[in-house]
Structures
1.
Amino acid sequence: MRIHPRFSYNGIPAHEIASFIEGTFPEWERPAILFMREWLNAEETIEVQTSGSSGEPTVWRTGKSALEASASMTANFFHRYSGTSALLVLPATYIAGKMMLVRAMTQGWSLTSIMPSAQPLSTLKQPFDFAAFTPMQLVELNDDQLKLLAQFGTVIVGGAAVSDALRERLISYCDNTYETYGMAETLSHIAVRRLSGQNMPFEALEGVQLSIDTEHRLQISAPHLLPEIIQTQDVVELLSPSAFYYRGRYDRMINSGGVKLFSEAIEKKIEPYMDRPYHISSLPDDILGRRLVLYIESEVPIEEKKLKERITVALDRYEVPKEIIVVQTLERTSSGKIKQIRH
């Protein structure tokens, strides 16, 4: 598969990559090395997998040309072409990390890869033209790290929703950060929105056409990525074939007494009042059909009455949980996301 002559990986130039990746490497670097080996082989397809955030992880093969097309979309949108200095702090096990490698290899970027961690900026001294992070990697940045991040050319944040608290921290220092929308099935993001804008909608990348079904679930047409229309479970407010507001997962929508509630939106509203992991779900109810429930991960008892009083001020009338359930452990996916609780 094509590798741009200006590509480099941790200082290793493109013409030496093939021999370099046949060596031995620390465990944290192996996913990236294995992916580059697979990219360079004679196969026209390559393996990708979902994170498993809404079910069991799924593995399938897709054309390398589709990954290359996705890389070009991002490079064109952000005007990041050959010579771009880029930072890889995401594991190449999943599509976000794989796509950073594909962008670098096909667009001629100079890629620096460091061990993925919860605080990758703690060891950095210089900015980069382009970098991708998960929200978790940015929530605990100190002022000096935020000042460094502000010197980056473009920062994209994805893999989970950006909380209001994180958004406010980022835009207080940076005007270079973008939230992304996408999934493994779309080969990374197909839409972005600038965080510094006031309630900006997601804007589709070039070549992507959007529509909705009768339940307002987003449908994505991107023939250069996949030949068929991608039917998502994401409920959106569609503004045009290229712009939308995200409202929540259809499979996490709770119909309680005829009122449709989006658990993700509720979780985002109460986040400033929570000091431990939590999850909004529902239980069967004889009167309401489903009643809203707040699950909290804690090994010690909590003062449920005081907590309910705190979160109620941030919620609409029907969004207030009918019950708070404390559990010792909330189940997580292999990528660290809290799994949905279904009853």
2.
Amino acid sequence: MARGRRTDSPSVFYGWFVVAAIFVVLTVTAGLGFYNASVILRQSKEELEASVSAVSGATAVFFGVSGLVGFLLSRMMERVDLRRFYYAGAVLGAGALLGLRWVDSVVELYAFFVLFGVAFATAGLVPSTTIVARWFDKRRSIALSVASTGLSFGGIVLTPATARFIEARSLAEAGPWLAVVWFVGIAPISAVLIRSWPSDKGLEPDGAPRRLTPVAVQGATFAQARRTRFFVLISATYAMVFLAQVGGIAQLYNLVSERVDSSVAATALSVMALSSVIGRLAGGLLVSVVSTRSMTIGLTVVQAVALTLLARADGSMSIYIVTAVFGLSIGNLLMLQPLLLVETFGVKEYSRIYSFCQLFGTIGVAGGPFLIGALRDIYDYEIALYFAASANLVAIATLLLAGPTQAGRATWDPAATAQ
């Protein structure tokens, strides 16, 4: 990796330009991928005349593939320029979206989501949170909250517009246009602004004065981290959190369309995403004075309550209120996961540690949309969402059993033992 030097002292720390670039990239990947999965699910169900559980399985494949690929590539992320991953994700994602014009069966829909899942992993959260964790130390929570707000902003700006665009035409007609937005929103800004390490610009984390002699990157190895009770139980916690969260997001558009109509469904997605933005920005400040673990427990309770209320909501206003509450938990819980891990295990092998936790969470990410869709087909959405809410109760129990972050940190940091 290049370790260039600079003699100037810019008034604005370059790390904030990196955060801004990642904000834009995550806006695109979330707006056309994460949130848009529920829109594609709804449209493909109608165009292919398939059951909810069949197309829900396709979105489960999308999230499952993205988790697996993120972990498989994580070791490489420690050694190469991370911009290469964004370039690959831009090309693969554009190719997948372009390929929507040839999706005429459920099997082809699954093939699309496999390729799109690979693209989502290579240009998504694993490289993005890795870069932010490297560029910031003391202001890491604020930087992560700003960068990851791009996820919700994508749901506000891109997903509703995409939903209307797809419904007015078809997946086949919309695909090429979505491919252009995906590529242009990722590749150019990654090339111009994103850098893998602060030292690539002759800087230190947070803009601290440069050290004359290099200092080894601090943190646990992946082998050390995975042997701790904290890591195992945090991974289990987020598997349950994501089962409920991603399952709810993936089914929200279809649920609201069935109970009210598609215009209310599109608005509900925007309300949820806007609430997620507000909650995440507030959470980035709050987590600097509140324990990360305590905040995670509290927001998991909020998510459980929101899903329980959504199970019975049937009017447009009640749906908007409940999805706003749901959004508060979504943005913050996603941000708190990398904070918990980097606070406990440092940045030395963060990408492997985070990606493995994400891979474990894939059990929930991939299973949530499918299980909720299947329960809807067997019973109804009310029973399905009660099931999702109960998954959060399991998550709270495992998080309590994990213990404090100092217990995990003590495996590699002698100073933590004395705390």
